[in-house]
Write a structure and sequence with these properties.
globular; mainly alpha; 97 residues; 51% helix
Length: 97
Amino acid sequence: MSRIRQEEKLTDIPNVGPAIAADLCSLGIREPAALVGRDPYVLYEALCEKSGQRHDPCVCDIFIAAVRYMEGAPARKWWVYSAERKARLAARLSTGT
């Protein structure tokens, strides 16, 4: 069974440095616990919309890693989630959603 983590600062989360923490803050996520239950893909799209620019897809991978970690998954490098993101994008493109 996984456990929800108790990190105090966003930068306490593996893979989250000051720039990603600032991105999350711009989306209203100011504490790590606020990531629990959030959809990292929705967060990524919201960031792109809010900033008016398309961010590197690796940012989405970092959001996935951060959400999963806060929900109790082991700490993993962000690039572990790249294949998942690419598969999800391919599935969306093939269904047109």
